[in-house]
Amino acid sequence: MQSFLKILRWSVGILFIFSGLIKANDPLGLSYKMQEFFDVWGIPFLTDYTLAFAIFMNVLEIVAGVALIIQFPYKQTLWLLLGLIVFFSFLTGYALFSGKIKTCGCFGDCIPLTPKASFIKDIILFIAIVILLFNQKKNKYKLHPALGIIILLLATAGVGYGQNYVLNHLPIVDCLPYKMGNDIAEKMKTPAGAVPDSIAIQMEFTKAGKDYVFDVNHFPDNFDSTYVFKSRKEVIIQKGNGVKAAIDDFYLNTLSGVDTASYLFTTATPYVLVFAGKIDNSINWVALLAKLHNKHKLVYIVTADKTGAINQLSKEHILIGDITMIKTAARVWPTVFVMNGSTIMQKLSYIDYMNN
């Protein structure tokens, strides 16, 4: 029995540490996933705190896993892990049974799990923790409290430092489709066997105080100007198989709305894309742009902040992109992409580029 409990304890501890380390490699990714949950639940006011929540949860998950392995403090750690796994099971269960969240982000972007796989994993962990909790009195190992505290403090400091590092220098392991060496154009191609969702567009109008919804292909014969437009929405008629391109939201438009992605992808001259979702005074743009122009002939600023770009970077080549795409491509703002056609030759955060 003791051998079984030891194997179970180490397995649970290592899994929590592994899960936490993957997410600590990219805390912004976890914060974006939290924002998705908060938006679905109708509490968007919490989105300003998601990064702090993500950093805290990653520290808690890893330190709890370490505490379980060293068995200090053993009983309290088991109760903490039980609370965590109940919370995680709620999240994965919600993603699975509501269908409103595609992935729960349990292992970040490095190991994407379906909601079903994530939920089953959490149920197994719940059972394992309950077994350990019911048998915790059989634990005979006693670690000296001072040594236990030192180990946990070192683990906390290490995880905190690591997360601060990746928030300034990009994830250590880049698991996203925009990692160095990837060909963006190739990643935009739809995989063989993909079946897209079947979508119908519906239009909502009001007339004489009543609401009417029409399929775009089936407007009434008496439709006229007395129908006042309210909204337009897409309705999924039939779900596809979920297989899609790794990158499906990439576009680069000029300020006048001209798509330039295809042009850049086929140009023979290497160029630079500087991704920054927001343009503000927190970055020394003058110094960054001076270094960029000194080393590269073509430099483009990719942002979703059209107003900020016009006000602060009026003489630069500005391209407008989707904010979700920019968040995925660049975890640090700004991030410098040195491009050769559609291939990412180099990818550096602002800090690393300036020190390079």
In helices, the fraction of residues equals 40-55%
Which class best fits the helix and strand makeup?
Answer: alpha/beta
What order do the helices and strands follow?
A: HHHHHHHEEEHEHEHEHEEH
Major sheet summary line: 5 strands, mixed
Descriptive notes:
By secondary structure, the protein is of the alpha/beta class. It folds into 3 domains: 2-169, no CATH class; 198-238; 247-355, Glutaredoxin (3-Layer(aba) Sandwich). Helices cover 48% and strands 15% of the residues. The protein has 12 helices and 8 strands. It has helices at residues 2-24, 27-41, 50-70, 74-98, 115-134, 145-169, 184-187, 261-266, 285-295, 306-312, 323-329, 350-355; strands at residues 198-207, 210-215, 228-238, 271-275, 299-303, 317-320, 335-340, 343-349. A 5-stranded mixed beta sheet has the order 6-5-4-7-8, sandwiched between helices. The protein has a 3-stranded antiparallel beta sheet with strand order 2-1-3, with no helix packed on it. Strand 5, helix 10 (306-312) and strand 6 form a beta-alpha-beta unit. Helix 1 (2-24) packs across helix 5 (115-134). It is globular and about 75 Å long.
